[in-house]
């Protein structure tokens, strides 16, 4: 039997909130719950003053959920709901922007989205960023996947970004890409407690308080799905286009369609679809197999009148390169896999970044 949202909520009701004395669900600590094929994610919105107690609640909730049948992965992100500035980062002098605004010095902003998790969105974002850098573009990458920031690992970057003036944050840099990620401000597996009314405050800080410098393109790696982060991004900043990553599987395609509808409603142009894990290429014998089906994304792209920008093969080297901190575009630049990403970068430059 597959894992249900109800089962997750019932389990979380066993955990009590030490502040209110109620169970954590009734106390309203569980926000933005998503249960997706064994992956459970939610946000705990807390008062920063209670952070130490809440870390214990978070740990109990994780243990309880990991013990549930069908749970493969648990991700609980803590955010601070107080408007007070944290001790080490004062709010920017300017008040929060209302309408979509450009980021100073950033020529284009491209959002990389996916309808569902695990389709390789972050892998595509890391390889596209390094491929655009290899084509001579000045590239930034903002890891806005607040539930599971993976870009520091994929780009081999670690360490805490500095904030010399206490107002702006200096991003890090590797493989020709300027990177900022929530994952860089917290130790791996550590709770994320960030200033701001919600996660949205965190996103806004990453957009406007990071010293991006002069960039030809800023790539934003979004969380999967069609949630608040996507909405906030489109409301706060001028998004020049979205690229939707999907696998050939039907379910991923249906979710991709939802993503396209959302960007249409938000008036964000769709640059196109990317089929990831397209054909499996055996790393020893080179045999090709369409594990997740064949032609689905291409047909869908045609039906929706959006370009199919790339078909990226499912290849072991793409995963190992990402895990090793040097995307395949950098670590095996001459491989057909790397060339697929370089081709994608050239296509985007010719059509959307010219
Ligand atoms: N084309 C590919 N070939 C081989 N492995 C891949 C490919 N694309 C992604 N992967 C692997 O699949 C896993 C999931 O990819 P990734 O983390 O990029 O997905 P995601 O859509 O960003 O996931 P999340 O929902 O967690 O944000 C990773 O281990 C990655 O290395």
Automatic annotation (TrEMBL):
Name used for this protein in its record: Iron-sulfur cluster carrier protein
Gene3D superfamilies registered for this protein in UniProt: Fe-S cluster assembly (FSCA), P-loop containing nucleotide triphosphate hydrolases
Function statement: Binds and transfers iron-sulfur (Fe-S) clusters to target apoproteins. Can hydrolyze ATP.
Keyword ATP-binding attributed: yes
NCBIfam families under this entry? PRK11670.1
Any GO BP annotation? iron-sulfur cluster assembly
Family per UniProt?
A: In the C-terminal section; belongs to the Mrp/NBP35 ATP-binding proteins family. In the N-terminal section; belongs to the MIP18 family.
How does this polypeptide assemble, per the annotation?
Homodimer.
Which Pfam families does the entry mention? FeS_assembly_P (PF01883), ParA (PF10609)
Q: Name one GO molecular function term.
A: ATP-dependent FeS chaperone activity
Q: Where is the MIP18 family-like domain?
A: 5-76
Q: Which UniProt keywords apply?
A: ATP-binding, Hydrolase, Iron, Iron-sulfur, Metal-binding, Nucleotide-binding
Binding sites annotated in the UniProt record for ATP: 115-122
